[in-house]
């Protein structure tokens, strides 16, 4: 429906004060924002019922997530993996595939980076970083691209398959990190060998946040260009609208599905590499930090639009960054942010039912003329 | 170990594991089976299972009765099912996405309210020692059957019979196969799906109560390792038949017991890989039973995952 409808709308809608295209654009921004607000209000009511002050909660979130230069640094560092994890959901989603196992690609991407460091520690710094990035992206791409391939070749449901693979990935990581890839010196927390000092990824000058943030933002912008401004993206959107119609048009729906899932998985794998090379210094169980699951929510909030993922990821990074302070000050459990995320997620999906109301308004206005 | 039965311990432990581990699978998959037969999929049962485990444990701790706990878990699951069913009634809402959101929401709520219950000890659900005839402790342990396991077997057969032979079952099947046909018959499609989802949620809640009140028998944040989700996948493998769900659950329980069983006879390397066996098995079965070209036989026609 999208393309023809959009063209028809621009042709027909100019007469009205609120053209249909404009209405559609406004709707695409206002509806998710309203849903976000509704979710946050629902959570405020939830807190009030428990006798906690919602005002204190949101003030603390603001302070700990966005209030000071230090909190911004913390928030942006958390945003880096979330940006890439959200792309792992958003890119396949444009083809109509709901992939929720990005966590698996993050974890195995990190392990791949750790393994490269153990296999060829002799490489000079930049070459080592490139080798880690390639290995992590390839690993993540294979993992999630495999889900796309299963979907295409066998008709396996991608949502369930990807989540099962996430559990398998975490088991595989534990197996490797406690066995084959274990650094004997890591006693309390089994890890791969620490990366050579020159392989560590540093901070963006003046920002205090590692380069993963820049890579994440570039990946989001590139994904937006790919989807909205290239023939590949156009084909993907057609497939997402109606697979059978796309196939009749001769579009390679299967190849697109594999390609977009693999690309999303490669981004998630990179997120794991940055966690290893810029944050932890070696691959271990800390890789399964739940970024993949928060990424699902961010992608849905952003309506799978690469550019919108950037503010959405920063917002939820701020929520998660404030978690510690909220726990201490308000004596709330650490799952508080999870409840908030669940409520916002439900509100966002509920807002889908309000879609097209704006266009309906524009239609009415035109009829009245 | 006084009675050394050597490698025989492995199949015996797997049998025991199948009996112990399969119960949550039975309840969640039979529940999901009802939901999917009405044409909707609820991926949120993982969250329902975890919340059921928490609420069942909390109520059992406060009242001292594991049965009241199980009842509370069923009620909580019912509410989650109603929430899913109610939201999906609205136009243009995606039932798979809502399921994912409820998975996060249910787990989050369970962890949120469950924090104070990690330490206290709640009473366990009773088990029937059906291995009394044997002098071997391994046999006795393997055949120690929980009441809920037996209830689960009865439930699977009852649900199959209900779907085949009753008016309610027929209504659910018609709604699941063709919403238009159901509407033509004057059936309120949304209401049938709402209550099918609610029933599925209640059963998933009971499955959760089994986890926290019998095996492993305590509440903590790692109580479910994706059983709720695997049970959903299992329904596809079981071809939407509750009795097949029972058999598949037993198979899964056995696979889940493989790691601990091998460990008990001294095989410790690759522990994590054996731990992953149920997931690998689920995925393998999913791949083997799916098809690109043919619609799956006996799949409800309205189900979004097979379209």
Structural write-up:
The complex is a heterodimer of chains A (369) and B (307). With 369 residues, chain A is mostly helical. Chain A has a single domain (54-357), classed as ABC transporter involved in vitamin B12 uptake, BtuC, CATH 1.10.3470. Chain A has 16 helices and no strands. Chain A has helices spanning 2-13, 20-49, 54-67, 69-93, 102-119, 125-154, 158-177, 212-229, 231-241, 243-248, 253-280, 291-301, 306-321, 323-330, 336-351, 357-368. Chain A is globular. Chain B is mostly helical. Chain B has one domain (6-306): ABC transporter involved in vitamin B12 uptake, BtuC, CATH 1.10.3470. Helices cover 68% and strands 2% of the residues of chain B. Chain B has helices spanning 9-37, 45-63, 66-89, 95-114, 137-142, 147-165, 167-177, 179-184, 189-213, 227-237, 242-256, 258-264, 271-275, 277-289, and strands spanning 127-129, 144-146. In chain B, strands 1-2 form a two-stranded antiparallel ribbon. The N and C termini of chain B lie far apart (54 Å). In chain B, 56% of the residues are buried. The mean pLDDT of chain B is 89. Classes of the chains: A mainly alpha (369), B mainly alpha (307). At the A-B interface, α6, α7, α12 and α15 of A face α4, α10, α13 and α14 of B.
SSE map:
The complex is a heterodimer of chains A (369) and B (307).
Chain A: H1 2-13, H2 20-49, H3 54-67, H4 69-93, H5 102-119, H6 125-154, H7 158-177, H8 212-229, H9 231-241, H10 243-248, H11 253-280, H12 291-301, H13 306-321, H14 323-330, H15 336-351, H16 357-368
Chain B: H1 9-37, H2 45-63, H3 66-89, H4 95-114, E1 127-129, H5 137-142, E2 144-146, H6 147-165, H7 167-177, H8 179-184, H9 189-213, H10 227-237, H11 242-256, H12 258-264, H13 271-275, H14 277-289
Antiparallel strand pairs in B: 1-2
Helix pairs in contact in B: 1-6, 1-9, 1-10, 1-11, 1-12, 2-3, 2-4, 2-9, 2-10, 3-4, 3-9, 6-7, 6-11, 7-9, 10-11, 10-14, 11-14
């Amino acid at each position: 429906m999208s393309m023809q409808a959009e063209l028809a709308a621009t042709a027909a809608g100019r007469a009205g004060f609120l053209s249909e295209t404009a209405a559609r654009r406004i709707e695409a921004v206002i509806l998710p924002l309203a849903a976000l607000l509704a979710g946050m209000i629902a959570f405020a009511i939830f807190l009030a019922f428990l006798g906690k002050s919602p005002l204190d909660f949101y003030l603390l979130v603001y302070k700990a997530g966005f209030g000071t230069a230090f909190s911004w640094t913390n928030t942006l560092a958390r945003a880096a993996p979330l940006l890439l994890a959200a792309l792992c959901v958003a890119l396949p989603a444009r083809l109509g595939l709901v992939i929720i196992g990005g966590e698996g690609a993050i974890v195995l991407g990190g392990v791949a980076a750790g393994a490269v460091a153990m296999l060829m520690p002799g490489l000079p710094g930049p070459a080592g970083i490139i080798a880690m990035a390639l290995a992590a992206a390839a690993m993540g791409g294979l993992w999630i691209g495999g889900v796309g391939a299963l979907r295409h070749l066998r008709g396996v449901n991608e949502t369930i398959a990807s989540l099962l693979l996430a559990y398998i990935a975490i088991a595989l990581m534990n197996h490797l990190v406690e066995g084959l890839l274990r650094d004997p010196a890591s006693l309390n927390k089994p890890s791969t060998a620490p990366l050579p000092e020159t392989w560590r990824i540093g901070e963006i000058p003046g920002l205090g946040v590692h380069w993963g943030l820049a890579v994440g933002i570039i990946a989001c912008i590139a994904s937006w260009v790919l989807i909205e401004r290239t023939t590949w993206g156009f084909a993907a959107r057609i497939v997402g609208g109606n697979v059978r119609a796309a196939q009749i048009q001769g579009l390679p729906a299967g190849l697109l599905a594999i390609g977009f899932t693999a690309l999303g998985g490669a981004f998630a794998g990179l997120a794991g590499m940055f966690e290893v090379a810029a944050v932890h210094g070696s691959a271990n169980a800390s890789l399964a930090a739940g970024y993949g699951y928060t990424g699902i929510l961010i992608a849905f909030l952003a309506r799978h639009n690469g550019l919108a993922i950037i503010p959405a990821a920063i917002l939820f990074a701020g929520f998660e960054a404030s978690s510690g302070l909220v726990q201490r000050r308000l004596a709330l459990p650490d799952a508080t942010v999870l409840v908030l995320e669940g409520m916002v997620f439900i509100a966002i999906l509920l807002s889908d039912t309000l879609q097209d109301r704006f266009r309906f308004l524009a239609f009415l206005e035109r009829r009245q003329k | 170990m006084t009675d050394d039965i050597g490698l025989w311990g492995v199949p015996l432990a797997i049998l025991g594991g199948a009996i112990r581990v399969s119960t949550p699978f039975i309840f969640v998959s039979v529940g999901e089976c009802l939901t999917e037969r009405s044409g909707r999929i609820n991926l949120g049962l993982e969250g329902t299972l975890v919340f059921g485990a928490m609420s069942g444990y909390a109520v059992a701790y406060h009242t001292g009765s594991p049965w009241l706990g199980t009842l509370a878990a069923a009620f909580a699951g019912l509410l989650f099912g109603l929430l899913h069913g109610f939201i999906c009634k609205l136009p243009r809402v995606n039932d798979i996405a809502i399921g994912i959101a409820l998975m996060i929401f249910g787990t989050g709520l369970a962890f949120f309210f469950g924090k104070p219950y990690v330490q206290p000890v709640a009473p366990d659900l009773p088990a029937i020692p059906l291995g009394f005839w044997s002098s071997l402790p391994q046999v006795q342990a393997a055949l120690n059957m929980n009441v809920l396991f037996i209830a689960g077997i009865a439930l699977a057969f009852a649900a199959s019979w209900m779907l085949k032979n009753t008016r309610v079952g027929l209504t659910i099947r018609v709604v699941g196969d063709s919403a238009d046909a159901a509407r033509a018959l004057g059936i309120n499609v949304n209401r049938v799906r709402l209550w099918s989802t609610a029933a599925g949620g209640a059963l998933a809640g009971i499955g959760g109560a089994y986890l926290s009140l019998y095996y492993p028998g305590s509440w903590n944040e790692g109580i479910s390792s994706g059983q709720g989700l695997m049970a959903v996948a299992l329904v596809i493998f079981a071809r939407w038949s509750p009795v097949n769900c029972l058999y598949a659950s037993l198979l899964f329980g056995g696979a889940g017991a493989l790691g601990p069983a091998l460990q008990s006879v001294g095989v410790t390397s690759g522990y994590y890989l054996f731990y992953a066996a149920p997931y690998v098995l689920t995925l393998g079965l999913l791949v083997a039973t799916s098809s690109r070209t043919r619609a799956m036989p006996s799949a409800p026609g309205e189900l979004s995952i097979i379209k």
